[in-house]
Amino acid sequence: MLLYLHPDNPQPRTINTIVDCLQDGGLIIYPTDTIYGLGCDIFHQKAIMKLCRIKKLDPATAKLSFICNDLSDLSHYTKTISTPLFRVLKNYLPGPYTFVLPASKEVPKIFKNKKNTIGLRIPDNLIARTIVKELGHPILSSSLPGNDVEEYTDPELMHENFKHLVDIVVDGGIGGTKPSTVIDYTSENPIVLRRGLGVWPEDGSLENEVGG
Fold first, then answer.
1. 20 to 30 A Cα–Cα from 45, which one of 19, 55, 95, 207?
2. Which residues touch 109 (CB under 8 Å, ≥6 apart)?
């Protein structure tokens, strides 16, 4: 199913249809502030396993992330956020960044990895955040299968290519081609794991911002 949502004023009835799909264990393709993502409910194990089969991933070792609605939502899925870290998150989010942080007890066991970390993201995209807000908790997010850039940008083409793998393709307009910038913030010195759309200072330039 291909569903259109207005990027600045998502239609509530269509949002509810998408939320119902997620709660029933469905998979969706949805827009973010970077590339389109493949998502499901983080608490629906069958949906998680289906997503991982499509991507040929192990949920305990895969580099997956949670899409959150706001900082309050994000804070449930990581351990205590220090004041300096909160300032950084508030400065960069919503935005095209994924922060790898220590996982809290709220993160489902299926995602527990050796480092006990989780990628957390608040995209600057009203459609994605509205879906999460109405669902009541984050959605799991991964990139789409395949390497063709067009498959990540045109909703109609995505629907044609992936309609047999997912339940809903959310049309929020043409998507981007660069993923988010990923920052490992599990220690005092943040490490850029992937440079994407988000502009991030070079290593060491955050000394004053994070309190040394």
1. 95
2. none
Q: What's the rounded Cα separation, in Å, for the pair 132 and 69?
A: 6
Digit-coded pLDDT (tens) for 103-140:
999 999 888 777 889 999 999 999 999 999 999 999 99
Q: Residue 33: which domain range? A: 2-194
Distance of CA 79 to the CA centre of its chain: 18
Whether 124 contacts 96, CB under 8 Å: yes
Residue 204 included in any domain? no
CATH number of the domain residue 49 falls in:
3.90.870.10
Number of domains in the chain: 1
* Residue 207 belongs to some domain of the structure: no
pTM above 0.85? yes
Distance in angstroms (rounded) separating the CA atoms of residues 168 and 147: 20
Q: How far is residue 33 from each of residues 70, 113, 174, 175, measured CA to CA in Å? A: 14, 27, 11, 8
Q: Give the chain's end-to-end CA distance (angstroms, integer).
A: 50
In a domain, 37, yes or no: yes
Q: Phi/psi at 49 (nearest 5 deg)? A: -65, -35
pLDDT in tens, 2-48: 999 999 999 999 999 999 999 999 999 999 999 999 999 999 999 99
Residue 105's contacts (CB-CB under 8 Å, 6 or more residues apart) are none
